[in-house]
Amino acid sequence: MRNHVLPLFSLLFVSLLQYFSHLDPVLKKELHRERKAMAAPFELLGILEDLADSEFKKFKWYLQQAEVLDGFAAISKSQLENADRMDTVDEIIDTHNKNAVEVIMKTLKLIQKNDLVQRLSNLNSMSQESLSDCQHKLKSNLQKRFHDLFEQATESGKQMQKNETYTELCVTKEVPEGQSATCSNQTINIEDVLVPKPDQAGALRTLMTKGGSGTGKTVLTRKFVLDWAEDKLRNDIQFVFPFTFRELNFLKERQCSWMDLLHQFFAETKEVRSFDKLQIVFILDGLDECRLPLDFHNNEILSDVTELSSVDALLTNLIMGKLFPTASVWITTKPEAASQILPEYINMVTEVRGFTDMKIDEYFRKRFRNKELASSIISHVKASQSLHIMCRIPVLCWITATVLEDMFKTNERREQPKTLTEMYIHFLLVQIKLANVKYYGKAETDPTCIKGTSKTILSLGKLAFEQLQKGSLIFYEADLKECGIDVGAASEFPRIIKENAAFNQDKLFSFIHLSVQEFLAAFHVIVSFIKSGVNPLSQEQSQPSSVDKDQSAVKGLFQSAVDHALQNPNGHLDLFLCFLVGLSLHTHQALLQNLTRQLGSSLESNQDTVQYIRKRIREKPSPERCISLFCCLNELKDHSLLEEIQQSLRTGRLSSEKLSSAQWSTLVFIILSSETELNMFDLKKFSASEESLLNLLPLVQASRLSLLDHCQVSSRGCRALALVLSSPSSNLRALDLSYNQYDGVYDLAVGLQDPQCRLETLRLSNCGLTDVSGRYLSHVLSYQFSSLRELDLSNNNLCDSGVYFLSMGLERPHCKLETLRLVRCGLTWEVCDSVAFFLSSQSSCVRHLDLSMNNLQDSGVLVLRGGLESPHGKLEALRLRFCNLSEKSCGVLASVLTSQTSTSSLRQLELCNNDLQDSGVKLLTVALESPRCNLEILRLSNCMVSERSCEALASALSSKTSSLKELDLSSNDLQDSGVKLLSVGLKSPRCILETLRLSGCQVTEEGCSSLASALSSNPSYLKELDLSYNHPGDSGVLLFSAGLEDPQWRLDTLKVDHGGVQRLRPGLWKYACELTLDPNTAHRELSLSDGNRKVTRVEKEPYPYHPERFDKVTQLLCTTGLMGRCYWEVQAKHTDISVTYKGISRRGDNNDCTFGRNDKSWSLRWSNCPRVEHNCKDTYLSNPQGDPDRVGVFLDWHAGSVSFYSISSGTQTHLHTFHCTFTEPVYPGFGLFCDDSFVSLTSRGNAVISQASDAEI
Q: What is one term from the GO cellular component aspect held by the record (predicted)?
């Protein structure tokens, strides 16, 4: 049967073709139109998407039942069983072809979805041909409308269409409030701007795009419209309707429907009877210019697009989704006006950030076809940070291009603009010049302002001000005439004022950009006040005053302007205020003297205005208003601007957590466009958090040194920093990420290995690095383009294996590292094999190496010797503090310094805090006298050296081959006898020592006399002498004071502070201080006794309330904050022994209150398993030998260290040393964490606390 049917069908098809070929053409067209009237597949899909899951399941069941489909074929169960909505549409079309719509309508009726039946009927009623015709007409009209937006290429005299100069803008998605935008935010291409989020079903409903004034919001929307009209965007968008709030403001009092609006603004759509389920995009540009109330709460709810209502109600219902529910709505606004729309009606927020640095160059090259001119302007812009930053805002880039083009064309070398006000002044002067040349025949170099031109500009200023006061941004010809402006005269300034395409019969005008209107309005206020003495901003009629005489009136003008702008909730007057205060500067008024010379005077109220603005900032206005006031300070060129911003963020007046990304962008723009020097960026001066970092990344990129230590930086921050490092425009050369408890090496490595990265110094002290980090850093160091010269990995648990991996990179030929710090990295003597390996490498560049506070012991130095003696070695400085070395290491190092195989490259050797004894120092002094030794700096502080070493040191100093220029013997009990021996060497004419440190060496007046005598004998070299923490007495100080007056002495720095008889005690007891426990800080379960020198745990004490008392944690502090060098001992059991800033929290039991669990305290937990802790990072210590009966604490505040010692039978054993930078006095504190805990302060004689600051004579 089938074999006969197919031929018959073919014959029938041929007959039908022949029949159609003889039909009347009109009839054929109607039949064609009817055939094309079927709804499109995506429209059918839209219908099915409105079915609930249960309804959709029933819908598919009916499609399988032939008996209810009135003769239409059923679709088999197997085809529909697992079909989703898209698959179902495909199955219906494949089965029923042109009858698909009828089948769907029948099935919808069966499940009683009559609303969808009606909608599908409406969709099907309009032919695709008619729809396409409307689309074509609309696109054609929009092309004409937006192609008319051109820029004048004055060097050629030709007009350039917007598409020729359009440069891609940086558009990013804004993260929710309280989170941070980062430079790693994915930028959005214009074709993807309305693409929904991955987790969002269907089309994007409402998009809000924020951006500051001039960042390109309007240009972005118009480019989108133009691309759609030219079929460059995705084809699923059927209609785009661009509106501006400027235009809609004119319809404020009108009653109309949405269909009326569409037909009025877009007459091509009159044939469209319904837009239901069509893919439509509404663009509402310039919410910040909206003068409608947008009353979402009280406007009537509409459900019909043909229903009459106010334009305000039409807009709120559109935004709420009550009308055109399937359409997309795109709103643009300045950040300060965004709150006019309730957040629940916004599905996604993006931010326009203007141009990137690369796009600035691209814009100028597109704008100027003369390549030489373009290159000159680009070079000029890049030479000025403020100018370059301003050019990131497209409208300022356009204005800059105009100003610089004129400057280069006329060979003028005037001072370049540095503020917005200066830029707009120069732009205005260029427009005046162009009008004079074109319409009055003036030469381009003639600065004279024609009277007619001057009058027009002043009248335009009046128009700008009056319309700004009314909130009008579009105005009629009658408005121009009221201000004495002839339309013909206005047309002489096409880059200031323009005629708009009218949607009614009247001519409409607007300024070329809102910022131009705001500038001219501010200019009018200045001119009007100078001329009349009346404040145009005052609501009350004031008496005219003499500007020259009545400064209170001038002060009142600017203060009223500030108040007026702050009272405006949507920031409509923010930029106007910036221009107004900027124009108050006499230097700015001088630039406009040709316009204002007939007024005969000027005004200036700089400092009064600055002080008033600072006062208003301290009143904690909203973030928007606060940022506006910062802009004003920038326009006034106030040098306190950066400090004001830092203080506002640091104190919380400007909450970093509540700032939007757009507001952060504005802050960054203000800072970078100011004249502030940004060689160093310290995040802690702003807000020490990762959130602040991510929003201030442009400041990191602009600085040469960025201090991000103690700022809670995590992987997110490190990934963002990697992008900064790989940016070709980055100035960053040094980065400090110390004390951030995250191993971010892996994330940073991406940027460090980028060819664009030029970072030379990286500090990662105390960042939780492990041996794996060594592997990543090895790759970075061996990378061909690595520029790293200095690397600090101190206070990380790298262990020997980490340094082993690191050494692989250090010996590679591309490695340029010169300084490596590995302080307290958990290293043993075995690591010295890896160190010797890279030090002896021919390609190694390492010149400075710090291995301090690692348990290297003498074995480590012995292993290291091979690398130090290598003929390829370039090491100049070696630091081995706290490495458990003895005199044996001194013998090895002496051998290195006098090596016969090669001349030693070592210039600096630091062996402080090792038990070298006199025997070890004597070995070193032998090397110092060798002609092969080139050592210039030797530091032996706290090395158990006595006067017995001083004779050998004196011999070395007086050796004819000695090259020693700095010697540090501090904290060794040399006494006067040792200083006398040392002075013999200082007297020698061969001694070239420049710096001698004898701090804490038990020196009295007698030792001072010997030193003074030596300096008198050989005054040629010594420049610095440190005798602090000794007992020179008044007579000793006088000896040096007199010597300082001697012109033959070269001594310029003498330290004799913190003196006193107590400094003659041996060891650390010379720094002893008397402590007293503070009962006002004691937790109520702590009981004080023994004159507040002992504390134990009890049930509870009825202490009175005190704000400094710890209420949850059983801790207390001592009464006195300490600075300088201080030492104390305690007997303790199960106790936290700590030092802390006074600002540690007292309320609660969280980390902010607990010693060692925050960045304000450093603690030793003295228990069976002792450990040290700072900022939640703890390190367990080995149990001390013997049976310690006391714990000693030594604070060296200026050196930034606090050390803990166990004391057993009078013997001190070093436990741990914290290194940091103290910023305020620290208080000894104790925490008692067990029932049997106690603390007793040990007294040694009549120790006193010396709080004198460093004294330099």
A: cytoplasm
CB 902 within 8 Å of CB 921: no
| Dihedrals phi, psi of 240, to nearest 5 degrees | -125, 125
Mean pLDDT is lowest, of 396-400, 411-415, 490-494, for 411-415
Please say whether the beta carbons of 939 and 911 come within 8 A.
Answer: yes
- The residues with which 352 forms a beta bridge, in sequence order, are 171
Which is it for the CA torsion 431, 250, 628, 732, positive or negative?
A: negative
Element (H, E) at 104: helix 100-110
**Are 648 and 627 within 8 A, CB to CB?**
no
Taking the C-alpha atoms of residue 1152 and residue 462, their distance in angstroms, rounded to an integer, is: 58
Confidence of residue 542 (pLDDT cuts 50, 70, 90): low
> Per residue in 1205-1236, pLDDT tens?
999 887 888 899 998 889 999 999 999 999 99
* pLDDT for res 1205: 93
Hey, is 455 helix, strand or coil? helix
Query: Regarding the domain delimited by 638-757, which CATH topology (the fold level of the hierarchy) does it fall under?
Result: 3.80.10
The pLDDT of residue 21 is above 60 = no
The strand pairing partners of 1179, in sequence order, are 1172
d(CA 124, CA 312): 32
For the stretch 137-141, contacts whose Cβ atoms lie closer than 8 Å and that sit 24 or more positions apart, written own/partner, are 137/268, 138/229, 138/239, 138/240, 138/266, 138/268, 138/269, 139/228, 139/229, 139/230, 139/231, 140/229, 141/266, 141/268
With beta carbons less than 8 A apart as the criterion, state whether 991 and 954 touch.
no
AA letter at 1193: V
Question: The domain 129-148+167-174+186-194+202-354: what is its CATH number?
Answer: 3.40.50.300
Interatomic CA distance for residues 381 and 399, integer angstroms: 12
Q: How many C-beta neighbours within 10 Å does residue 815 have?
A: 23
Helix (H, G, I), strand (E, B) or coil at 383: coil
pLDDT in tens, 446-476: 666 777 788 899 999 999 999 999 888 888 8
Q: Is the pLDDT of residue 208 over 90?
A: yes
SS3 letters across 148-214? CCEEEECCCCEEEEHHHHCCCCCEEECCCCCCCCCCCCCECCHHHCCCCCCCCCCCCCEEEEECCCC
- For residue 381, is pLDDT > 60? yes
Of the pLDDT bands very low, low, confident and very high (cuts 50, 70, 90), residue 203 is low
- Does this chain's domain 936-1064 share its CATH topology with 1066-1241? no
The pLDDT tens digits for 791-817 are 999 999 999 999 999 999 999 999 999
Structure-model confidence comparison of residues 1189 and 1246, the more confident one? 1189
The tens digit of pLDDT for each residue in 210-264 reads: 988 889 999 999 999 999 999 988 778 899 999 999 989 988 888 999 988 998 8
DSSP 658-690: T--HHHHHHHHHHHHHSS---SEEEGGGT--SH
CATH of domain 18-125: 1.10.533.10
Residue tagged 């990295």 (tokens): 825
Superfamily of structural domain 1066-1241: SPRY domain (2.60.120.920)
The overall longest dimension of the chain from CA atoms, in Å, is 133
Lookup: tokens for 24: 């009347």
Which sequence spans correspond to the domains of the chain?
Answer: 18-125, 129-148+167-174+186-194+202-354, 638-757, 936-1064, 1066-1241
Whether the CB-CB separation of 1053 and 1025 falls below 8 Å is answered with yes
Q: What is the pLDDT of residue 176?
A: 52
Identify the CATH assignment for 936-1064 out of 3.40.190.10, 3.40.50.300, 3.80.10.10, 3.40.50.261: 3.80.10.10
Task: Give the pTM.
Answer: 0.76
Which residue in this structure is represented by tokens 């032996």?
940
pLDDT tops 60 at residue 543: no
Amino acid at 396: L
